[in-house]
From TrEMBL:
Protein name: Orotate phosphoribosyltransferase
Role noted for this protein: Catalyzes the transfer of a ribosyl phosphate group from 5-phosphoribose 1-diphosphate to orotate, leading to the formation of orotidine monophosphate (OMP).
Gene of this entry: pyrE
Pathway, per record: Pyrimidine metabolism; UMP biosynthesis via de novo pathway; UMP from orotate: step 1/2
Keywords noted in UniProt: Glycosyltransferase, Magnesium, Pyrimidine biosynthesis, Transferase
Length: 215
């Protein structure tokens, strides 16, 4: 679910402007999963554009507090959301921790890095939601550490049905600054893509694991 439509449209436009999101239906990308995709999203680029990162920081800070109330801690999911998560924590005047994909193999064997007390209310900041699996592993690690995870806020989601189901099963609310639907609407309106390319992008979103598998 998006925080609000105005934020979703403006965020989508920023992501297209800085090429954090690239749309190429004619020459699909290959994801690490092996899926063929007409879209590629790299929200790490946001940190390199001060005006965009400040906008994302401010929208997260305002909407997190409005939607969830002020938490005790902000947690970023490594590695993509560490930078923006820390900016949000700084803006809200809150402690920050980050969550590794898995525990360290040495030292204190931490998966959650930073100071976190049992029972603290945590909002997780994420850069991108695809299936939601890796994001929810971070939530599981925080819960195992004793945190009360109030929800997750992400920059962008592809809006896959499997992600909706995964978050529902994890009993966790997800809110995003923008999503696939708003991105496509804006991309057509601003002529980043043609109506024919829009149709291709919508077809991919319905069944991304098998779309264009022979390309």
């Amino acid at each position: 679910m998006i925080f609000n439509k105005d934020t979703a449209e403006k965020t989508a436009e920023f992501l297209l402007q800085i090429n954090a999101i690239k749309l190429n239906p004619r020459n699909p990308f290959t994801w690490a999963s092996g899926w063929k995709s007409p879209i590629y999203c790299d929200n790490r680029l946001i940190l390199s554009f001060p005006a965009v990162r400040n906008y994302v920081r401010d929208e997260f800070s305002k909407n997190i507090e409005k939607q969830f109330g002020k938490p005790d801690v902000i947690a970023g999911v490594a590695t993509g959301a560490i930078g923006i998560g820390m900016l949000v924590a700084e803006s809200l005047g809150l402690p920050f921790v980050y969550v590794r994909p898995e525990p360290k193999k040495h030292g204190r064997l931490n998966q959650v890095e930073g100071f976190l007390q049992k029972g603290q209310n945590v909002i997780v900041v994420e850069d991108l939601i695809s299936t939601g699996n890796s994001s929810l592993l971070a939530v599981e690690a925080l819960r195992e550490a004793g945190a009360n995870v109030k929800g997750m806020a992400a920059i962008f989601t592809y809006g896959f049905d499997v992600a909706d189901e995964n978050f529902k099963n994890a009993h966790l609310d997800l809110y995003t600054l923008s999503n696939y639907q708003n991105l496509l609407n804006l991309a057509v309106a601003k002529r980043y893509i043609t109506e024919e390319e829009e149709q291709t992008l919508r077809e991919w979103n319905v069944n991304p694991s098998t779309w264009n598998i022979e390309v």
